Amino acid sequence: MSDSTDSPPAAELAREYFGHVADRDPDAMAAMVHEDVVEEFVVLGTFHGRAALRDFFAELFAAVPDSTFEVETIHDVDADTAIGQWRFTGTFESGPFQGIEPTGADLDFRGVDVMEFEARSTDEKRLSHNTIYYDGLTFARQVGLLPDEDSLGDRALMTGFNGLTKLRTELLD
Q1: For the chain: N or C, fewer Cβ within 10 A?
Q2: Alpha-carbon distance 19 to 144, whole Å?
Q3: For residue 2, which of 121, 84, 114 has the smallest C-alpha distance?
């Protein structure tokens, strides 16, 4: 933990950072992070460095140009760590995102960030590590990677998976 007596509390920094997400401004987001920031999207992957963070969000905002990002709550854990709960909505219509071609799907899912801020030498406190937990199952269903819940496709997928699991078990016994 850093000495944060002259720095804003983590929740205040998180609120500012989330404001840049809501404004769809990856450059302003990148300005608030350390060069070697780690953004760990638990469902998706880990992105290392300011440029990777900026590129990830530039791609997201291009793919979902009407995106809205609503902060539901932000809490200080301590002077350097904040937890923020949020909701993301928009239409996946304008470009690919993480290799997925746009489907025109409406997106509406929630998530939580665990944000760690750190001051280094004479540098102001910046985001150094962020662990993002979001509803990847809902996202996958909404963009069409997985069938709708309780649909014929969902039941067929589950039946096929369970059949394959039983076959593997029988073959290994």
Answers
A1: C
A2: 29
A3: 121
Measured between alpha carbons, how far is 56 from 39 in angstroms, rounded to an integer?
Answer: 10
Separation CA 96–CA 100 (nearest Å): 5
- CA gap 130, 40 in Å, rounded: 6
Where do runs of H (alpha helix) occur along the chain? 10-22, 26-31, 50-63, 136-143, 152-172
Name, in order, each residue with C-beta under 8 angstroms of 172's C-beta and a sequence gap of 6 or more.
none
pTM, full prediction: 0.87
Sign of the C-alpha dihedral computed for residues 20, 43, 59 and 68 taken in this order: negative
Query: How many other C-beta atoms are found inside a 10 Å radius of the C-beta of residue 124?
Result: 12
How far apart CA 69 and CA 138 sit, in angstroms, is 16
Beta strand 33-41 with 126-134: parallel, antiparallel or unpaired?
Answer: parallel
Pairing of strands 81-92, 68-78: antiparallel
pLDDT at 1: 46
Each residue of 59-75: pLDDT tens digit? Answer: 999 999 999 999 999 99
Rounded to an integer, what distance in angstroms lies between the CA atom of residue 50 and that of residue 87? 23
Query: How many whole angstroms separate alpha carbon 50 and alpha carbon 84?
Result: 20
